[in-house]
Amino acid sequence: MESGNTIEEMESEQFTQCRNFHVTLISASDLVDVRHLFKMKVYASVSFNEEPKTEKQTPKDKQGETNPAWNHRMEYTIAEAGILHNGLMLVIKLYCKRKFLPDVYIGQVQKPIKELFETALPMGGSAETTLALRKGAAVSQGELSFSYTFGEKIIVKKPSEWKTLVESGANLVPETGKKLSHL
User: Fold this and answer.
1) CA dist., res. 114 & res. 93, Å (int)
2) CATH of 7-182 among 3.40.50.720, 2.60.40.150, 3.20.20.140, 3.40.50.11540
3) Whose CB among 67, 77, 106, 174 lies 3.0–4.6 Å from 94's, allowing a Cys bridge?
4) Alpha-carbon distance 84 to 97, whole Å?
């Protein structure tokens, strides 16, 4: 690719503007105790719009029980259009791990990516927040703390899976996307 190309020339059928997005799940506090005989082992599941292809998990915390701590960082590449659109939602769900039975859902937080971006932008692209957990329409017991960072704009080559992800509303670039340049 020539170094004199404009953004408009690079933004074509083959390329798109994106930003790296890092989210660090720090901890949760005051969770409802869903285990009565054994210790709670809590983990978090992160996705965008609950799209399974975007889901990543923290390790389970074996010590904190109702106050788990992970300090676990996850990385994504998000299309700029997805950041600026109200439809892309960061979803973080908490579960209690069980050995022979299905894991127990504790609660979740949801936040529009656009809102996270607008909050972080004046602070250099990074912010930290604590949100109340919800279970269905009701506020559940407990809070979740996480930090996040939006990187500079980059141009990436759209992988073959791009169309499927955009159609699903995810507006994410799979990790196979090749970074071409920083803007």
Assistant:
1) 19
2) 2.60.40.150
3) 106
4) 35
Give the whole-angstrom CA distance, residue 75 versus residue 160: 20
CB atoms within 10 A of CB 69: 16
Enumerate the β-bridge partners of residue 33.
none
Q: 71-102 burial by CB neighbour count: b if 16+ within 10 A, else e?
A: ebebebbbbbebbeeeebbbbbbbbbeeeeee
Q: How far is CA 91 from CA 46, 76, 144, 163, in A?
A: 6, 13, 12, 22
Q: What is the pLDDT along the chain (183 residues), one digit of tens a residue?
A: 444 555 555 445 678 899 999 999 999 999 998 887 888 999 999 999 999 999 999 999 999 999 999 999 999 999 998 898 888 999 999 999 998 889 999 999 999 999 999 999 999 999 999 999 998 877 778 999 999 999 999 988 876 655 545 444 455 555 544 444 444
Tokens 């699903």 map to which residue?
168
Q: Supply the pTM of this predicted model.
A: 0.81
